[in-house]
Write a structure and sequence with these properties.
Layout lengths: L1 E4 L5 H12 L23 E4 L5 E14 L3 E13 L8 H15 L4 E4 L13 E2 L2 E8 L25 E6 L6 H12 L8 H6 L12 E6 L5 E9 L4 E9 L2 H12 L6 E7 L5 H4 L7 E7 L2 E4 L2 H7 L6 E9 L4 E10 L2 E6 L6 E4 H7 L6 H6 L4 E2 L4 H9 L12
The structure holds acetyl coenzyme *A.
InterPro entries: Acetyltransf_17 (IPR041380), Acetyltransferase_Eis (IPR051554), Acyl_CoA_acyltransferase (IPR016181), Eis_dom (IPR025559), GNAT_dom (IPR000182), NAcTrfase_Eis (IPR022902), SCP2_sterol-bd_dom_sf (IPR036527)
Family: Belongs to the acetyltransferase Eis family.
Enzyme class: transferase
Length: 410
């Protein structure tokens, strides 16, 4: 088996191979724009070839930016379109593709790789861990009243408590570059969020509302008329209004958009897709049980490729010191690091001191964005805490200003 990089002229064979791996026929000719594959970066793809030169496996890589805790934005590789023909499975083709791809990510000078996993058991062995999580919130319209925020219910409530903005309903085609601008403001402030390169918007290459599939878009503007949020939605059977994504630059705008869709006429219930776990919207409902949380799922999987660079790149919200012993079995690497956090920034240097926490790189990758507490992985038996109190200290250190969240599909 041989692995070779792809170029533009490989698009058709690449798309055909990945579809055969998934067992589907492409639903449109490859030349037809607007499909997800139009955004593929063919100079970053890989094809695995059998001994006789036929393509048997694929892996794509996108160039994204990821927002880390503390709003630090770094380049990352988004791994996608991974597939091996059913006739060539379980012979190590995926393992070879992963190894080659990770070395290419490092060669670019990047220290993080991310992906969305089709099945959870596949990627842990390659050092990826689930790092952001997502839910779906369903609210029956007749129970959708929002409570007045208690902190603002007093006589000295600030004037800003009420929404002074406006909402306009547009079609996707009428939005111009507004959604792209709003999404970009939102993702720079949201840990775990990925950039959506202009190419994706221009090609209509992702999920709604990036794609050209019919959706109404409620665009929120502030008092000065500047767009600062949108909700992309459609109404289906039985009057279910489904919001594909609610993008807002702050929580007040999110609430204004939620209020708008929850007040829509001829609707029986509103389904908010891609809501971060612990999102405050549920707490804003006057009836706490009105919001039914479903489909709690992993979304972004993260893989650290350089522990010191990764840990010093993110922001931190509590001071402390930890010695981490990190094993990377897939790459055959091992390192012990002194992590010292002061005033929001970390230093991370090799050490031979006794470790506080011993863990696999896949588990450190899960902890990295702050979406899961170290103590949970200690309790699960995956992370070893060497002293009493270490897990609580690690929890305090890794915790972030808000849970990481990602809703970009790629
Ligand atoms: C980011 C994305 O694109 S997600 C999309 C992933 N692609 C798909 O789901 C499409 C359908 N599936 C496939 O194409 C293939 O089965 C793949 C890509 C998942 C696996 O490819 P293979 O070449 O068979 O994997 P490979 O032989 O390298 O296996 C490596 C190891 O992973 C394990 N493994 C591979 N696939 C799976 C799986 N679906 N579930 C559990 N374990 C798996 C293998 O058993 C093997 O374990 P071992 O090292 O202990 O022997």
């Amino acid at each position: 088996m041989k692995i070779r990089p792809t170029a533009d002229e490989d698009l058709e064979v690449f798309v055909d191979t990945i579809h055969t791996a998934f067992g589907h026929f492409p639903e449109a000719p490859v030349a037809d724009g607007g499909r997800w594959w139009s955004a593929l970066e063919m100079d970053r793809g890989l094809l695995a070839l059998s001994e006789d030169g036929r393509p048997v496996g694929t892996a794509a890589a996108y160039s994204f930016e990821l927002t880390l805790p503390g709003r630090h934005v770094v380049p990352v590789t988004g791994v996608s379109a991974v597939g091996v023909l059913p006739s060539h499975r379980r012979r190590g083709v995926l393992g070879a593709l992963m190894r080659r791809q990770l070395s290419e990510v490092r060669a670019r000078g990047e220290f993080l790789s991310v992906l969305l996993a089709s099945e959870a058991p596949i990627y842990g062995r390659f050092g990826y861990g689930p790092a952001t999580f997502t839910t779906r919130l369903t609210v029956p319209r007749h129970r959708a009243a929002l409570a007045v925020p208690r902190s603002r219910a007093s006589a000295d409530a600030p004037a800003s408590a009420a929404d002074s903005g406006t909402v306009e309903v547009l079609r996707r085609s009428g939005c111009g570059g507004v959604l792209e601008e709003v999404y970009d403001r939102y993702r720079r402030a949201q840990p775990g969020a990925l950039s959506r390169p202009h190419r994706w918007w221009a090609l209509g290459a992702g999920q709604a509302p990036v794609s050209s599939s019919p959706r109404y878009i409620a665009v929120h503007r502030d008092a000065d008329g500047v767009a600062d949020g949108y909700a992309s939605y459609s109404i289906g059977e039985g009057g279910t209004l489904t919001v594909d994504e609610t993008i807002a630059v702050d929580d007040a705008v999110f609430t204004a958009l939620a209020r708008f869709v929850l007040g829509h006429d001829l609707v029986s219930q509103v389904v908010f897709r891609h809501v971060p776990p612990e999102h405050p919207l549920r707490w804003r409902l006057a009836d706490f049980r009105a919001g039914e949380v479903g489909e709690y799922a992993d979304w972004l999987w993260v893989r650290l490729l350089d522990v010191p660079r990764a840990l010093t790149a993110r922001g931190w919200f509590a001071d402390g010191d930890l010695v981490l012993d990190v094993d990377d079995p897939f790459l055959g690497e091992h390192g012990r690091y002194q992590l010292t956090v002061r005033e929001g920034r970390a230093a991370c240097v090799p050490t031979d001191r006794q470790p506080d926490l011993s863990l696999d790189v896949r588990d450190l990758s899960s902890l990295y964005l702050g979406g899961i507490a170290p103590s949970t992985l200690v309790r699960a038996g995956h992370v070893r805490a060497r002293h009493p109190g270490t897990a609580a200290l690690a929890d305090a250190l890794f915790r972030t200003e808000r849970p990481p969240h990602c809703l970009h599909w790629f």
